[in-house]
Amino acid sequence: MASKKIRRRDMIQQVVQERGGVSVGSLAEMLGVSTQTIRRDIDVLCDGNTLRRAHGRIELAEDRLNTPFDQRAGTNLASKRAIAEVAAAQIPDGATLFISIGSTALSVARALRYRKELTIITNNLSAAMALSEEVSNRIILPGGELRLPDRDFIGEEVVDFFGRFRAEFALFGTAGVGEDGRLLEFHESEVRASERMRSNAQCAILVIDHSKFGRLAPAAGAMITDVDQVVCDRRPAAEFDPVIEALGDGLLFAEKTE
């Protein structure tokens, strides 16, 4: 099988795993191919027990779809909790911060549960709810349609939303990191939202577990070296040594090694 076809099908599986389901049209637009090509891919991908077709969409099989989002999408959960504790330790009471979509960002929000008088600007409803238990916090959300089952807001309206604010910190994740250190997302609007948060914050903190290094996604964003600080669970594979070395003191590992 051609490597291009393998990479495309891997991307489809990643999107469905993270989002629970996605339409054929959205996949075709995202990956720059025809809907007929996507349907052929789906024929192959659904020949098993993990994925299923559903009214012009491809979804997780029912037993996996019913798993809560933060458990289903959040692989490496112990590592993400460790990342979250390190990132949250840098946020003082009274800070203003952006929080992006994604399960790692959600883990950081949960780790901030003891902070007070935060101003949180986010398109991640689950993060907002996690921080709403502290009544001294101020939480600002965009309007628009809530994407399910992820419980977040995406699109150009969100890019404009983040552009209206300034923050001391931006906490955000990414879908993948290319071999050259490029941050990758599944949608161009997600790239623009992350870039708007990064440029409008005094300190941008990327929270990412090692599995995202080498993970493919079609929309290219900033370089990882453009971020003020990266918090990762542990060192990724050796082929990323040049990227890791370029980060210098801007990289923190959450898991201690001997």
UniProtKB/TrEMBL annotation:
Q: Which residue spans adopt a coiled-coil conformation according to this UniProt entry?
A: none
Q: Which SUPFAM superfamilies match?
A: NagB/RpiA/CoA transferase-like (SSF100950), Winged helix' DNA-binding domain (SSF46785)
The record, for Pfam families, names:
DeoRC (PF00455), HTH_DeoR (PF08220)
Could you tell me the keywords of this UniProt record? Answer: DNA-binding, Repressor, Transcription, Transcription regulation
Instruction: Domain (HTH deoR-type): give its ranges.
Output: 5-60
Q: Name one GO molecular function term.
A: DNA-binding transcription factor activity
Top-rank taxon, per record? Bacteria
Q: Extract the InterPro entries matched here.
A: Carb_Metab_HTH_regulators, DeoR-like_C, DeoR_HTH, NagB/RpiA_transferase-like, Tscrpt_reg_HTH_DeoR_CS, WH-like_DNA-bd_sf, WH_DNA-bd_sf
Supply the PANTHER family for this chain: GLYCEROL-3-PHOSPHATE REGULON REPRESSOR, HTH-TYPE TRANSCRIPTIONAL REGULATOR SRLR-RELATED
Name under which the protein is recorded? Glycerol-3-phosphate regulon repressor
Organism, as annotated:
Ruegeria atlantica
